[in-house]
Each structure stands twice: as C-alpha cells, then as structure tokens.
Amino acid sequence: MPTEATKNYDFTEEKVFNSGHNACPGCGEALAVRYVLNTMGPNTIGVVPPSCIAIISGPQPYSSMRIPVYQTTLEASAASAAGISRALQRQGKDDVNVLVLAGDGGTYDIGFQALSGAAERNEDMVYVCLDNEGYMNTGSQKSSSTPYLAVTSSTPGGKPSDKKDIAEIMAAHRIPYVATATVGYPDDLARKVAKARDMKGMRFIVVLTPCLDGWGVADDEAVRVSRLAVDTGFFPLYEVEDGERYTINRGPKGVPVERYLELQKRYRHLTADQTREIQAGVDHRWSLLQSRVDCLAGRSKGA
Amino acid sequence: MSKTTRKAAAPATHRPTEVTGPPASAPAAGQAGEIPTIWTTGWTDVFNTGTWRAATPVHEWRPSPCHADCPIGNAIPTWIAGIREGAHLEAWLALVDTNPFPAVTGRVCHHPCEGHCNREVLEAVVGINGLEHYLGDLALAEGWALPAPGEAQGKRVAVVGGGPAGLSCAYHLRRLGYDVTVFEAHAELGGLLRYGIPEYRLPAAVVAAEIARLLDMGIEARTNAPVADAAALEALEAEFDAVFLAVGAQQAKELPHLEEGAGAGRVLDGLEYLHRCTEGVARDLGEHMTVIGGGSAAMDVARSARRLGHQVSVVALEARAVMPAQPEEIEQALEEGVALFDGAMVTAVEPGTDGGVTLRCVKVTLDPAAPPGEIRPVAVEGGEFILAADVIVTAIGQDPDLAPYGDSLSVERAILTVDPATLATSRAGVFAGGDAASIDRYVSEAIGAGRRAAFGIAAHLGHSEAEALRRPLLEEAVNRKEINPFYFDFAERHERAVAPVTARLTGFAEAVAGYEPDAAAAEAARCMSCGICVECDNCFVFCPDMAVQKEAARAGADGVATGETAAGDAAALSSAAPGAPPGSGPFYFVLDQYCKGCGLCVTECPRGAVRLEQVTR
Amino acid sequence: MSTRNSPPANEVQLAGDMRLLLSGNHAVSYGAMRARPEVVPIYPITPQTPIAEKISDLQLAGDFDVDLMTAESEHSAMSACITASLTGVRVFTATASQGLMLMHEMLHYASGARAPIVMVNVNRTIGSPWGFWPDQTDSLAQRDTGWIQYYTENGQESLDTVIQAFRVAEELLLPAMVIHEAFYISHALEPVTVPSQERVDAYLPPFDPPHKFDTDIGESWGNVVNQDMFYRHRKDLGAAMDLVPAASVRADADYQEQLGRGYGILEEYRMEGAEMAIVAFGAMVGSARVAVDMLREAGRPVGLLKIKLFRPFPIEEVRAAVAGVPRLVVMERNFSPGVGGVLHQELKAALYGMTDPPAVHGYLAGVGGVNVSPKKIVELVDKAQTEEPVPGSVWQR
C-alpha cells in the first residue's frame, strides 16, 4: 500500500546505484542520486564535477554507479557531457542517455557558462542539478544558490543576496524541458526524470537536496525538510516545456515558512522581522510564478 | 525517534549482504597486484559502511495504543483493517477472538481504546467504539456463529454468575475445549447487562441475541440457581474440576443518615430502581427525584427517570470533568433535562414543608492528599444550597455480597483477593473476576477478567496450549511522536447519530444509532494501523544506502535469520515480537553491512512499525 | 635551395594529390579533413579563425563528414574534446593565445586522461597588453602540460604534421599540439599538396582505444586516487612521453614512404664542417635557411639546426647534431620572464653533461612579432662571433 509520496511511481530497482558509498548517513543527495540513476537506467553515461557526488562516486578503482561515469572539472560539466553526447551520435549510439549529476556550484556559478552554452546549442543530455544550496563538499561556503539570510562559512552573518532562480533562467533558454523536484516527493522526481529521459535535446532538472551538515538538519530529517520547502512555497514543484508551457505540480499548502526554517541551524539566528521578510519574499515569488503561468496559458505554442 | 529499554540482541531483521565483485570486462592495467590508476575496475559495495552506525533500525510489530489499553486485549487495528478491506466476517472473527459481546460493548464500553489513539495527531481519535458497534450489529443481522469449541479436554468448569465476567469466562473456556455450566441466580442471564443498563442504552434483545449465540457453542446455563453459601460452593468444587466466581457487586452502598432524615420510602437504591425499570414496573414516586452519585449508574437512573416523566436533579461529589460517568452520558443527560449539581454533596435531609424532602447540600472539592481509593470531600465555604425532592435515589457504588462464603475465601477491601495474572483466589481451583474481585467496575474489565481467568483455569487444568494462546501483556505501544502525519489525509471523524431529545424522552428506544456502512468504511479508513506494517515501502524507498530490502515473499519464505539461527523459521519470524498477530511481518530486512543508522526509515514510517535501537560495541 | 615557402626538398608528388594555393590555416583544415576526426569542438580567436571557417565550408559542401561543435569558450571546447575522445572517437581542434591560456587547466586534464587529441595552436602574443603578433610564448607556456609539441615552418608542414600527430598521439595515448605562427604561416598563401584520402586512410588506422565510455563495459574515469596511484600515473605518462621521439621518427618515415614527404624530428641544414650553428624553430627557420645560404656563399661555415619536436625535447638527437660544433646561436620569438628564451634554456639543459659542449648564445630576436629578416640573422651571427656567450638571453631586435 504505497503512500502519498510514492504511490504514483513504480520503484522497480535496477540497482544502478551501489551501497557502500561515502555519503553521510541520511544524505539527501544520495537519496536523489538513487532515484535519478535507477530511473535513468543502466544505458546511461554519467558526468560528475567536483561535488559531494564526486566523493559519493567512489575512490579509484571502485565506483558506486553501475554506469560509465566521467569526473570532470568544476566548470565543465555541460561541455563534457556535450562531448560524450556528440561522440555517441557519431557512433550511432543515440539511444544511450547522457546524464549530468552536478552540484549547485558547478551549475549556478562556475559551471554556468558551460550550461548556458550547452542549452543554447540544445545539446542532447539530461542535466540534473543536485542543489544543496552551497559548496558543501568544501566546508559549506556560499554559492549563488544559497538563499537569502542563510548562514554559511563564507556568510556567517547570513547571505545578503537572494537565491538565483535557475529554473527560470533555464526556462528562458527555451530548452525542451525544465523541472524542479525534491527528494521528499520521490514519485514526482522519478516521473520527471523518466519524462526527461525519453525526450531529446537539453533537459534540465534542479533537485533540492538538503545537506544535513551544511543546513544543520538532524540525520533523519532530510525528507521532512525537503517536503516543507515545497509545502511552505519556498520551492514549488513545476515543469516548463520549451520555455512556455508551465505546469505547476505542487505549490504551497499554507504552511508558514517558520516550519521549514526552524528545522535548520543555518537559520537559527533569524529575528522575527527577518522571518517575516522571508515569508513575504516567498509569497511574492509564488504569486509572480502564478502570474507567469496564467499569462502564458493559452498563448504558448503547442498549448 | 523512539528509545527502547529492551536489551539489544542481534535484531531479527538484519542479515549480512551478498558481496558482488568487480565487473569482469575491464582489463587491469599496471603491474600484477597494483591497483590500476586509470579507469575503474570494481564497485563500492565491498565497503562495509555499516561500521559507521550508532543506532540500528529494527522492523518489528509494535502494539498500537488501542490494543494495549483495551481491557480485553482486543487486536483492534487488525479488525478495523478487515472493515476497511470489506472483509467483514474476517474482521468480526478477529474481534470475537477476545470479545464475544461486540454489540454490547459497542454500545456501553467506556472505550479506553480511544484514549491514546494516535489519530488525534491529525484531527480526532478514531471512532473505535462505533466501529465495534457496527460490526457487532452486522454479525447479528448476518447470523454469524462464534468460533467452534476447541478439542475436548474432558474436564468441566462451573461458572457462578451469568454476567459479563462469567459469560466471557464460559466462552473462552468453551473455546479451549472445556465443558462449562453457568449458574445464574436470576431468571435470566446477563447480570448488569440485562438488569442494570437501561433499554435506551442497551436493548435487552441485543443482550439476549449475543448470549444465545454464546450458548449455541454448547454451554449449559442454569438460571434461578444461586450458589448461595460456602457449602454450595464446596459442592460445586466437588462436582467440577474448577470454579469461576463472578457474582458481581450487587449490594448497593448506602447513606444511612439520608434514610433517617427523609423518612420511610423516600430513599431508594439505584440498582433496584433500574431493575424495576427493566421489568417495566414503575412506582409512583412523585414528581421530583434527586439522584446521588456521579457514575454511569447514576446517569442511567436519572435518564430512565426522565423518560418516566420525573424532574430529575443529580448531586455528584466529583466535578463534571472527573465524574466516573462517560462524557457522552453526562452530555446526553443534560440534553434530556437532568439538572446536574457536580462537585457537591448532601449533608443533611429533612422532611419538606409540603411533603417530600429537603436536601441540604454544599459545594465540595476533593482533597488531593487523600490516600488512593479514598474520597475526601472538603466543603467550600459559603457553598451551601438547598434542593427539594419527592424521592431520593442513591447510586454511589456497590459492593459484592461475600458474607455467604464466610472465611472460605480471602477478602480485602470488600473484594475477593485474586492473583492478577491467573485470577486464582486463595482457594485452589477457585478463580474469581469481575466486580466481585475488582474495583474497576466496567463491562470491558469484566469481559477481560473472564478471559484471563479462562486461561488461568486452563493452565491450572494442564491445558497444553493455554500459554501459547493467551497472548502476553503488551508494553511500549506506539506513541504519537512515532506517527508521521504527512502520510495521512485530513478526514473528519464520523460520529454516531444521536436521536433528538424530544424523541428520546418519549420512551426507551435506543438513543444512539450505529454507523451506516459508508460512515463505518470512512471511519475505518482513518485507522493508521499503528505498529503494524502494511508494506507501504517507505523504509525501502527512503534509504540513501539501499540498506532496507524487501522480503522476496511474505513471512514464511526462507531467508531471514532471527537472532543466532541460520535459515529462516516462518513461525519464529512472524512471532518475533511477543503478541504479534500472525502475518504481521516483518516484510523488510536491513543489510547490516551498509546501514549507517541515519533513522530516515524510522521517521518516514507512517505508523511506527520500525524503531531505532542504540548500538553498543 | 629551399625557402620557407617551398615544399621540403624530398617531396615526391603522387597521383591523387591535389595542389592548391592555401594559407597555412587552410592547409591545416585540409589536413584535419584527411585525418577524419568525428567531432571538432572549436571556438574562434584571431588568428585561428580561418581554420574553423574552412572546416565549416568543407562540411557544408559535403566534403568533410564531421560534427562541428561551436563551443561557447575554449575551456568548454577542450572539455568536450576530452570526453569525446574518451568515448572513443577521433577529435581535432584549434586555438591561439588567449584561447590556449583559457584551456590550460584542461590541457593538463587531457594528458592525465590519456586522451589523444590533436590541436593546432597559432602562436600569438599573449595579453596584456593586447596584440595579435607572432610570438611563441603561448604554446611554450604549456610545455609542462604533458602534450607533445611540434613546431612547423610552413603550411605544408602543418598539414602533414597534423596527420602524423594523430598517428603518434593515438599510438601512445598522449595529446599533441601542432604549432605555427600567426600571419607568417597562418595567413601566408603558398602552393600546398593535399594528399589523397585513400593514402591517408591507409596511413592512419581507425581510432580504437583500449578504454572508453561504453555502457557494455561500464568502466569509469576520474575517481579520486591516492598518492601512490598518482605517482604511478605520472610515471606511466612520463614513460609514454619517452617513446615519442622514436614514434615520431617512425611516423615521419612512413609518411615519407606512403605520402611523399618527410621532415624528421629535427633537421640539420648545411651543418657540414660548421663552426657555428643557428638553432631555431617555427617560421624563423625559413629566414634562417636564407641567411645560412648567404653565409655559406660568403664562405663562412655556419649551419642551421631546425628543432621540430620540442616536447619531449629530443636530447639525444640534438646532442648528436651539435657534437663538434664549437658555437650555437639560438634565435627565438618568445620570452619567459626571469629565465629568458625558452629554447635557449632547454637547449642548454639538453647539452649539460656533454663532453666538450658547444658554447651557446641566446638572442631574443623576434619577441612580440618583430620582423627578423635573413639580413638581421646574419648580423646576429656576426655579433655572436664577436662576443662571449652569457648565461642569460640577450635582447636583440
């Protein structure tokens, strides 16, 4: 009897992801990698930049992923994946999936140029960003994905700037598929990965994955925290096809942002005013997203 | 996360992994024995990350709070699941495994099962009592029979007293294979069920039907057959292999000063009043009645009197919130026009000026420093008030009438002394239960006592399976912190329909109707099956290390080691936890070599069917 | 007599060859086309752009079946080269100057990954300040990245060396750079022989690496290694590098035999009885040939040693070439601050330990792209004969 969050997807495990990997106990990112890899299936070649996933990939000569994986430099994930993808096409193997598993640093910051270039060329790959909102592998420094007022080792007083909206940026590239997902709703995540897998061209999914150490979350709370991110409206789950056709899967359920913030030590310093400010920001972004959806509905091509 | 006080043995649901080797195809580079520096040759599943953990998950059946709190030991989530799945007969059979009187208890039980029901975390406790009412009535309508008696033991047991304790004992003894004869002093079986609870709460026809069904198992009943004294008891002991005394508490406690003050005929005993109501004999008692007492009996008296046209006031020692009567009873009594003076006592009674009596009363609080079992009212200064009535009815509790048995049985604090586990009295071969041997004066307690005594008697008579069938006491029920409310949709509780007051007061028709089938189904759907794995797969899905795996088949497949044993033993597996119902799993096992002890499986289990155990090295 | 605009003296023209008037860059495009790379990830930069443009035109015309990936930066271009190569297809690219600098991180990555990419670099001054002039510092600054480096003298040699480089690179699993200078070679037109596709196909076997990304194999590349593994990895890379000179000689000999032209890994020009030899690489070699002819005509025993294979530096071959020559004059078009001319420095290091080594002068003659005419070269020879060599390189334009 599957539950609310798992009932719409069949988790027939193909065991593409091995146990014995080095992720922290309860790691949200490892959970995401499990769902993504097993949905993509074994006919996949992976690209992984320096990140927690690179460590989770395993030390030479062992791999935690039962697919060929290339570890690239931090800037180059999308470009490296493009090289593989084009080579495969020249070899007549265009049924083989190319999958990027990159962190937010390698996607939003130093890796952004390569990502944008690959998107403009509509390279054939599924690019999954495992977003733990910071450079967690190197000691929790801020990235441009870190949210406003979150404490990191490079913003000990709280980050003064807002989180970059990577989903909207990628939607503006008008690539075939953009989606947001999180580990608290695995059936939604798996459905999106499967949908992306079966398309062609540049497909981008950003998955919010709580980092227990970096966010200051208890070992067993990654799933709960990620759900609260969605239920408070911090991180709505939605899809955009060809930059125009929006589908909102899950928006806020009326849960106040405190419920989400209070589970994370990186927000422990917040004053009541700051919490209100964050709530206002969340509400505003949600209303903008809804406006965008409403505005485009019926006007987009192929609607 | 739940902690446990149980000592950690190797958990039953753990096993070492199968280790897979490197891929065969990749050629090794470099010299022999040196790890190649480029291109991988193996998988990480050779790494034993299980050494990291400080706590380990254990999949194990846990009692639900309703099950643990039920005086009869009823496996409630199991039969509610049956209703949910539309398997009503199976559900009813699971229910009557412990309680043969669901149509009765579904109407009158004080439902401690609903006290700690974890559904309250979402909206409100599950209507367990209503669901029992529904199943009980369905069984009567369908004419379902109770389970057949067990293998004949060739022994005979006498049950003295045909009330709920005695009949429950007879039922369970018969199922264990004994021949049973019930001796009942009154003309009909049922005890308080028949004579003490009014028709509008518990119709005599329902009681009769459930008792008749019980007798159909081959239980002999002799009515108008009191066992009146020690000699009669000895005669029974000689004739039968064991005796169960369930004579109830039929002597009303009295307040002598009232009778002196009020004059003859003005003060009645509530139990006798109710008895007369059931016989349809009403006395001309005058218009105003004051009932003294705060329990169910006092409410029964007051509400019966209202139906017979009296103006009724009730004086109860306890404040309303802590009156022994069930809250629904008090609420319905008030709706029916009963005037309640709670937290008060009658200090003196004198004849009234225009006939009748005057009651001098005062508001009281109960001294919290009083020793347990003793009630010490403390008058509130300036809290005096006066009531006028034509008749006073007392319902302040009863004592068993044990004088006939003389010194043959040990008595303490006005009740028979019994062993709490076996219900054996001081006399070998004589057992006792119900109101005669307990101050917990509830129908369900009586039924539970009868059941426990049946197993005590069976053990005494050397029954080979008595111990296995009994089910031990349950500890550490799933508490609400172990429920994950995310997995349950908000659903309002269905209440049973209560007839409008005006209809109620016209007679003794049932005040509360049972659930309609769709309401019962909806209410059953709210049960979360605390502690009972329903194979939702959450623990399997939410492990970042794939350390929780599913059993290839249900319990009974080979594989899982319990403790030190090697190949799986299905029976050992399914009864890994004491009290586990058959087929309750575990359906998952933990890979010792990989589990890092994060606890995600425990937190994401919606119903506390996995717990975390500290690991010591 | 040869000038830098001529094909090599040993050229044999074969049936099926094309004779075209081509710039050095376009000659490279034809060479690349003949080598049949599957994927060309590339980013434009002056003065490399004609290479990519010609490849584009050839592809559009249906002559060159290739996937041209217009990357959004050189760093991404090289990143894609590495992975395409590791997926098991032949890869080619080209860049210059700033682009090569931007690729620097990935050049190390490519050799460490043992990806046999062939890249043409057009030598151009590196900013700041800005300039577009011939200067070899850009490619020389990459000499530690584990790439094979060949310096060519003209467009024909660039075309031929691109094809040979694929042979050597894929045999030893090391990336290779073919380098020619801005404008002097890249944009200068000359008649070029483009060999037939059939002959090149016979010369270059298909690329079939032992390891690659293949879902049937499942092996991965790039997981973190420990210190011991890193040490061994570098040692293995070094061992492959040590085999480059012999492999290059073989590749060149086969090329001579099958396609009609050969260059050697270095060339001795009129070295017989030389009292002094000019040592140079790149475009300056062409001018130096003219200068040597002038000197020899005047009866002065001066020869020329052309360095073609620069990395690995062919120590044994160079020692053999200069044994018995009393004086060497290095003239070069690059500058490494704090050290001087790179060829000067590498040459001296190569000669260290020789019995009776030549005295070595080093002149920074063409840094920044200043013109070094044959007349100027003769002046530098005169100057060298009048002064004692000093350890450092001497600025002389």
Strand content of chain B: 15-25%
Give helix and strand order of chain A, one letter per element, not per position. Answer: HEHEEHEHHEHEHEHHEEHH
Report the strand count of chain A.
9
Shape of chain B: globular
Task: Strand order, main sheet of chain B: write it out.
Answer: 6-5-4-7-20
Rg calculated over all Cα atoms of chain B: 29 Å
Largest protein interface, residues of each chain: A-C, 47 and 40 residues
- Helix amount of chain A, in percent? 25-40%
Distance between the termini of chain A: 36 Å
Query: How many DSSP helices of chain A?
Result: 11
Portion in beta strands of chain A: 15-25%
Main sheet: strands, sense, barrel of chain A: 8 strands, mixed
Describe this structure in words.
Helix content of chain A is 36%, strand content 16%. Chain A has an eight-stranded mixed sheet, with helices on both faces. The mean pLDDT of chain A is 94. Chain A is α/β, with parallel strands linked by helices. In chain A, helix 1 (28-40) runs parallel beside helix 7 (186-197) and helix 3 (77-90) runs parallel beside helix 5 (112-120). In chain B, 50% of the residues are buried. By secondary structure, chain C is α/β, with parallel strands linked by helices. Chain C has two domains: 18-194 and 224-259, Thiamin diphosphate (ThDP)-binding fold, Pyr/PP domains (Rossmann fold, 3-Layer(aba) Sandwich), CATH 3.40.50; 266-395, Rossmann fold (3-Layer(aba) Sandwich). Chain C has 13 helices and 15 strands. Chain C has helices at residues 24-35, 49-60, 74-86, 97-112, 137-140, 155-172, 197-203, 227-242, 244-259, 284-297, 315-322, 342-351, 374-386; strands at 18-23, 39-42, 67-70, 92-96, 118-123, 148-151, 176-181, 189-194, 266-269, 276-280, 302-307, 309-311, 327-332, 359-364, 394-395. In chain C, the strands form four sheets. Chain C has a six-stranded mixed sheet, sandwiched between helices. In chain C, strands 4-5-7-6-12 form a five-stranded mixed sheet, with helices on both faces. In chain C, strands 1-8 form a two-stranded antiparallel ribbon. Chain C starts with 17 loop residues before the first strand and ends with a strand. Residues 1-5 of chain C have low confidence and may be disordered. Chains in contact: A-B, A-C, B-C. At the A-C interface, strand 1, strand 2, strand 3, helix 3 and helix 5 of A face strand 3, helix 3 and helix 4 of C.
